[in-house]
Amino acid sequence: MNEADVRERLADVRDPDLGDDIVSLGLVNDVALTEEGSEGTVRVSLALGAPFSPHESAIADDVRTALADTGLDVELSASIPDELDADEQVLPGVKNVIAVASGKGGVGKSTMAVNIAAGLSELGARVGLFDADVYGPNVPRMVSAEERPQTDGETIVPPERFGVKLMSMDFLTGEDDPVIWRGPMVHKIITQLVEDVEWGELDYLVMDLPPGTGDTQLTILQTLPLTGAVIVTTPQEVALDDAVKGLRMFGKHDTNVLGIAENMAGFRCPDCGGFHEIFGSGGGKALAQEHELPFLGGVPLDPAVRTGGDDGEPVVLDEGETADAFRVIVENVANNAGVVRRRGASGER
User: Fold this and answer.
1) Quick check: helix, strand or coil at residue 225?
2) Distances (CA, A) of 333 to 59, 236, 260, 271
3) Using CA atoms, how far apart are residues 308 and 126, in angstroms rounded to an integer?
4) Domain spans of the chain?
C-alpha cells in the first residue's frame, strides 16, 4: 500500500454537495503512510472547513470506510489552507464567521442567531456569538448572561453560556442607557471589539446584525472575512420585500448567502390541534427559489420560543417540534458553510 493506492481508494468517496469525488475536487490535502513492523498508519488531511456539519462528518466517515480493509490505522485531520499569514488575518483563530441578518426588525433575527449558536455548540463545535445589534442588543437576556466580560485594559475575555462565548453591545452600556451612536462611532467600536476580544480558537463565530442595511452591516462586511450570511424573514410580503434588500446588500459585497430561514411559519393550536398560517405561508421558500438560494427551514410560531428568549434558555436545546425545526436550520447552516469552504478549496466559485 502506497500513497497512490490510498488516493485511488479515496477517489470512490464523493462530495454530497459538489457532485464529484474528493480527489478530483482537490479536497485531499495530503496523504502520509508510516509503517512500524507489521503495523502501519495512514494519515489523511482533508480540505474540510465546517466542523461538525453532517455532510462533512459523512465525508470523513466515507474516507474511513474506504480505507477500512487496508489493515492500516486511519488518522484524519481537516484544514483549508489560508492564503494569508496568521498575522495578516483579522480573526486568525476563527474558521467561519456567519452573519445573521434581516431586512427589517421584528422577524426573530436575534432568536435565530442565539439558537443557531447554541445548536452548533450542542453539535460539539467551538462557538462564539457576537451581538452586533447596536441599537437593540438583547442577546445577553436571551441566554441569561449574568457574567460580564473581563478585561486587563487591553484585551477582553468574553463570558460563556451554553458553551458559547458571548460579546454584546449591551455589555458596553448601562442597563437603561439609550444608545446614540453615529456612523463613525459604530465603525470604531465594532472594529475595536473585533481586534480586542479574545475569541480564541472557534469553529464558528455567529454575528447577530442589526436589522436593515446601515453602518454596522457595512463595517462588518468591510472588516470581517464572512463565510456567509443567513437571511431571516417571516412569510408575510412586507418582510419578504425587506429581505430582498438584505440579499442585495450581501450581493454587492460578494458575500455568500448560506440561505433563507423563515420564522413564525404557522401556529399549531395546543387546544384544537389545528394549524394556522397567521402570517401567510411559503414566503421564505418562494424567496429562496426565486433567488436560487437554499431554504434553510421554517420555525413555527410557538410560545416556547418567546418563553425561551425571556428565560434565557434557547429552544434548540429542548425537545419537540420547534426544537427540531431549529436543529434542521442549524445543520443546514453548517452544511452550507462547508459547501462554501470546500468550493473555495477546490477552486470553484
Assistant:
1) coil
2) 17, 23, 10, 33
3) 22
4) 3-78, 86-334
Q: How far apart are CA 329 and CA 192, in angstroms?
A: 31
* Sheet containing 97-101, strands listed edge to edge, beginning at the edge strand earlier in sequence: 160-161, 164-168, 127-131, 204-208, 97-101, 228-233, 257-262, 295-298
Hey, which residues does 229 pair with through a beta bridge? Answer: 99, 257
Quick one: pLDDT at residue 147?
87
| pTM greater than the 0.85 cutoff | yes
Per the annotation, does 109 bind a ligand?
Answer: yes
57 is written with which cell numbers?
462528518
Phi then psi dihedrals of residue 159, to 5 deg: -70, 170
Check the annotation: does 232 bind a ligand.
no
CA Rg value for the chain:
21
Q: According to the annotation, is 252 in a ligand binding site? A: no
243 φ/ψ angles, rounded to the nearest 5 degrees: -60, -35
70-119 tens-digit pLDDT:
989 999 999 997 776 666 688 889 999 999 988 777 788 899 999 999 99
**One CATH from 3.40.50.10490, 3.40.50.300, 3.50.30.10, 3.40.190.150 for 86-334:** 3.40.50.300
Task: Please give the helix or strand (H or E) that residue 35 lies within, else none.
Answer: strand 28-36
Encode pLDDT of 305-343 as tens digits.
888 888 889 999 999 989 999 999 999 999 999 999 999
pLDDT at position 53 over 70: yes
Residue 49 near residue 341 (C-beta atoms within 8 A): yes
**All 3 cell numbers of residue 234?**
417571516
Q: Which of 224-228, 232-236, 287-291 has the lowest mean pLDDT?
A: 232-236
Is 108 a known ligand-binding residue? yes
CATH for 3-78, among 3.20.20.80, 3.30.300.130, 3.40.250.10, 3.30.465.10?
3.30.300.130
What letter does residue 223 receive in the DSSP assignment? H
